[in-house]
Amino acid sequence: MKSPQETKVCVIGLGSMGFGMAESLLRDGFAVTGVDVNADAMERFAALGGAVAADPATGAQDADLVIAVVVNADQTEQVLFGPGGAVATMSKGGVVMSCATMAPDLASVFAKRCAEVGVEYLDTPISGGAVRAASGELTIMGSGPSATFARIRPALDSVAAKVYELGEEAGTGAAFKVVNQLLAGVHIAAACEAITFAKAMDLDLEKVYEVITASAGNSWMFENRVPHVLEGDYSPRSAVDIFTKDLGIVADIGRDMKFPTPIASTAMQMFVMTAAAGMGRDDDASVARMLADIAGLELPTANPASEG
User: Fold this and answer.
1) Contacts 24+ apart (CB under 8 A), 301-305
2) Which pLDDT does position 307 carry in this prediction?
3) According to its UniProt record, which protein family does this protein belong to (predicted)?
């Protein structure tokens, strides 16, 4: 790969994860253009010194690397191959990193479509959250040609602390991410159920958090999401709708394989119920609010003096 200063990167999707990735690349000297439908996100990135573009085709003009950090497979297809898509204008022989959670067969399809126009495709789902994205410490569950991974290694090292190369074929990375999302969704739902159950027993929730995070019942999601409940802050770091989608993918794959996923399916219904209650775009810790509403409980609310 060229030096960072000579490498043109287009990051499509400046949400909580994509913005952090773009910021990390910019910090490490890459020439980065950001693309997003959210004008505020574009202004924030421009304020950091990054370039911005109104659409993927413009942003990806002659790009060596396009990183698609959108919500799902449909959005990935649109930003890569749709009208104004990135693949048509990026550098031939350039590389696409596709980061959205999707069914493995769709990742395989996208890889073939890229190959047809002389673009390389890496199936690179990500995990770690907004904080790790901003610090360049994500985990990448990748699959695709090892030579392609080697070509873009400086960019990978800029955005991730761990890059797993899991096979030569697109779709393997997506499958690993689906397993991760099964666990993540179940653990979030369980954490929200546990902290709301503690409230129903009239326990000191701050003390519950202290004790559980030092005990065997802890999980990364309990430790990460329960503070949102304790602070009454449900601004979306990761939205409820993400897990209705991702656990839906788990359910679809399980049904096609005739493999039962009863715990994941129960968790999915908890997210669906939360979305149905009007909280689909709120933080996924809102599952606790949904349970509290059903049980007639009052969870902590945000302190107006500390907002903003």
Assistant:
1) 301/232, 302/231, 302/232, 302/233, 303/231, 303/232
2) 46
3) Belongs to the HIBADH-related family. L-threonate dehydrogenase subfamily.
Residue 128 has pLDDT above 70, yes or no: yes
Task: Measure the CA–CA gap between 297 and 300, rounded to whole angstroms.
Answer: 10
Return the pLDDT at 1.
60
Is the domain of 190 the same as that of 63? no
Catalytic residue among 177, 199, 207, 245: 177
CA 156: distance to chain centroid? Answer: 16
For residue 242, give its domain range.
175-306
Q: Which helix (H) or strand (E) holds 165?
A: strand 160-165
Which domain-ending residue is among 110, 141, 169?
Answer: 169
CB 91 within 8 A of CB 8: yes
Final residue belonging to a domain, choices 113, 139, 169:
169
DSSP label at residue 283 = B
Q: What is the DSSP string of 32-99?
A: EEEE-S-HHHHHHHHHTT-EEESSHHHHTTT-SEEEE--SSHHHHHHHHHSTT-STTTSPTT-EEEE-
Task: Say which CATH number the domain at 261 has.
Answer: 1.10.1040.10
Percent of the chain at pLDDT > 70 equals: 98
Q: Are 129 and 15 in contact (CB under 8 A)?
A: no
Q: Which residue type sits at 265?
A: S
- Here the CATH number for the domain that contains residue 26 is 3.40.50.720
| Confidence grade of residue 302 (pLDDT, cut at 50, 70, 90) | confident
Instruction: Count up the domains in the chain and report the number.
Output: 2
Token pair for residue 239? 């939205």
Position 130 confidence tier, pLDDT thresholds 50, 70, 90: confident
Query: CA-to-CA distance for 284 and 271, rounded, in angstroms?
Result: 8
What is the distance, to the nearest Å, from the Cα of residue 290 to the centroid of all Cα atoms in its chain? Answer: 23
Residues 135 and 14 in one domain: yes
- Is 199 one of the catalytic residues? no
**In this prediction, what percent of the chain has a pLDDT beyond 90?**
94
